[in-house]
Amino acid sequence: xxxxxxxxxxxxxxxxxxxxxxxxxxxxxxxxxxxxAHRGASALRPEHxxxxxxxxIDDGADAIEPDLVSTRDGVLVARHENExxxxxxxxxxPEFADRQATRLIDNVSTTGWFTEDFTLAELQTLRARxxxxxxxxxxxxxxxxxxxxxxxxxxxxxxAQTRETGRTIALYPEIKHPGYFRSIGLPLEKRLVxxxxxxxxxxxxxxxxxxxxxxxxxxxxxxxxxLRTVQLLAGRGRPEDFRxxxxxxxxxxxxxxxxxxxxxGYASGIGPDKNLVIPxxxxxxxxxxTSLVADAHAVGLFVHPYTFRPENPFLPAELRRGVTASPSxxxxxxxxxxxxxxxxxxxxxxxDPATGRAALDAFNxx
Length: 366
Ligand code: G3P
Ligand code: CA
Known about the structure:
Strand content: 5-15%
Strand order of the largest sheet: 7-2-1-13
CATH class: Alpha Beta
Bound molecules: SN-glycerol-3-phosphate, calcium ion
CATH superfamily: Phosphatidylinositol (PI) phosphodiesterase
CATH architecture: Alpha-Beta Barrel
Number of domains: 1
Structural class: alpha/beta
Oligomer: single chain
Largest sheet: 4 strands, parallel
Radius of gyration: 20 Å
CATH topology: TIM Barrel
């Protein structure tokens, strides 16, 4: 049996056993380090569309990341936030003009159109749009063509592509605004876990990573499933559930050596803002890596930082190319990713999986 034709999903990260659960296929196991398609190949296609995920898989991603929110009728759909005017054509739909509203979402007053005010059938009359057209003008050619996919459609895609490519395509869902959705009677956690279990993703080695910035949400999920969970760490501030509970601890506290020991009690890994792994200097150049990777590994947590993007504004100053002030010209993303791989990370979220794949393959060939 060669590497591309073993029966288990296989190991990833820090010492995980092969999986022999309910979704077996003749696919290669997940590798030790993962290319995670952040919202799909979102540098190339409007984010969180089946087309963006499919392009990511074509480009060599090991995992696809749907951020998840809820419709009014309780269906989980892939959007980065529940306010959808920035990523769909909803504002141009006169039949939905009266749905515009102002809501307090995670303590931020937000005006727009919200997924929880739409049934799935209504939501699927909308079409996706490029979020950052100044950075990604080519992607706007795909505006108004693709639907907002359900979680089930994303799962179906991952399974179909696993069968077709012979590579295990992992799911990396993130629960968005869990406290808010709980407050309006549409809690997300159990629905996500139930959907994953129903699709055969039940055992710890299954190719699934459930992520959240909110600690309470992850701890609840840990009680519902053995699937792997990932504590996201923002570069500043504190989790929204901590704020609501009057807990003064910050993401910096969670990412400290002591904090990570607690994280290891309910999560398998961390997903830090990349600046927490390699900070920038005052001149916006890459600086010396912090101890975060070593501290996480010391307690058995893998480290998957976010987000690696190819356009100049997102890169450190020394890796920008061409017109360095251009919002859309691309710099040396592979060099940035390589620096992080040398710092010991176990995978990374990227908007450009093709470049991520090339950088990781080169790193593995050293
Ligand atoms: O989930 C990793 C990363 O995606 C977290 O940031 O805001 O892009 O969901 P965000
Ligand atoms: Ca995310």
